[in-house]
Amino acid sequence: MARRTSRILRTIAAAAAAVLLLSSCTGLPTSGDPKQGLALGESSEVPEILLLASDPLPGASPRKIVDDFLEAAVTPTDVWAVARKFLTPELAATWRPSEGVSIDESSSSRTFVSDAEDVSDAKNGDTVEIQVGIDMVASVDGTGAYSAATGISSLTFSVVKTEGEWRISKAPNGIVIDQSRFPQVFGDYPLQYFDEGWSRLVPDVRWLPRRESIATAVTQTLIEGAPSPWLEPAVQSAFPSDVKLARDAVFIDPELVADVALNRDAQGLDPTTLSRMRTQLQATLKAAGIHVSQVRFTIDGRTLNAGVVKVVEEPADVGSIVLKDGAFGTIVGTEITPLAGISGAVLGLPLPATAIDVSVDESHAAIRLADGKVFLAGGGGLDELDARPGLIAPSLDPYGYTWSVPASTPGQLVAVGDDVVRHDVADAWPGASEVSAIRVSSDGARVAAIVVVGGERWVVVSAVVRDGSGMPTSLGDALQVAQLDGPANDVVWLGSDRLGILTEADGPKILTQIVGGPGTLETAPAGAASIAGAKGSSGMRVLASSGSLFARSGSAWRESTTGILLLATRAGR
After folding, report:
1. pTM
2. Which residues contact 170 (CB under 8 A, 6 or more apart)?
3. Contact between residue 115 and residue 129 where contact means Cβ atoms under 8 Å apart
């Protein structure tokens, strides 16, 4: 069990019930390299060294052919042209590598069993069957969605001798790649979808092969795909289902304008829809690290008049919020700037605060006191919101609701408005016996939580379903993001698609986890007691039990100040 959970900490990011790839009927976009203009959307995340696979060796045995064919997955150029050299011409024409990815623990852990070990007397037309066992840790489906898929999987290959060389005549669709090289071959690209109110953009991470034509792949995946099922209850796409790319390429001209040719079903779309479509795609390309100044839609060479719509953006990081030396506010250097309407209420609390979450506009804060009760401070006043026993730290959302729940009864999740009216949030983590932390994202469309299900501790993320006024009414199905080895009481957002989790596993550790991807585990500063999120991983802050506040300095932690009594969080982070 210890080996399994530690491996999951490094690699998983979604439902453990995910089916093994290699059987999906949809495909990752892999065609349409540019023929003119600039290189298609250079991505800032493309690795400096691209892995190159080798061609088949003359006289290679059936096992060697299969082994090297699997290794050729590291080179996706020209739709895995190198890998196709290991196949018979008939199979090379029909094999579909883009149906998905099986990610295994290591290429060295693969096992090979052949039904004919001695092939020295084989003649042309003779066939050998080889079973390959792989130790699965995750998978990516045909839409680019990443999920856990742990366990041993068996793949069957038929190898035939043709013209004196062994070539594969039967192979499953999809590719196999080990977890260490997966991030070098595939990149995470957060597609952007609108929330239910068309006012905010919400990311949905997909994994696509790193290549020059990534602008085409990202655009096609957004326009012709759909949100992940777990996220779908909280988001929507501006692109109508009948709108497709008219050509399998996105050209980027010298002015960095992305020319996106749409089919004729885009004719007659109203200006609002076109503007939302352009805004959604431009934001997606930007989030993917693709250099474009704007998107231009065309039909049969005619430019569509598409504007842009205003969306709420994440505010910049403006400093940590702390309680120190009889002052509460934003600390920059050694100076603390009070928060109008909040600081006075915090300093006048009848009991010490154990958790404080400050709204984005710094007009109010949700506070848990030492007696466990949750209050709302703002305008110089203090209102009691929740007095149930065993409450965990509260979380504010961008609509002004304070989320609160007892640790031992996860299903009793409530959201309390600034009118102090409590609203039950239905379908909160069915089957969970415990919840130790919750954080609503800055877009208000997702909530992260640390829950215990069946005796196992998981980080999960759920879609937030709201009514027309923005009041949360229920949660969607939980996406299992990462399994934890030890207790954890802090989860924060690091930007829009990553989480930071402070956990105890042989000492304090920080797990930085992609929502829809693998995570990385690192040692936290000694005595780490709480964390605060930020717009990016580099802005995370860690408070030690000694009162020392730590910030990142490259890959290390640096003490920035001491004497801190409490590290507050900002709503959505």
Report:
1. 0.88
2. 91, 156, 157, 158
3. yes
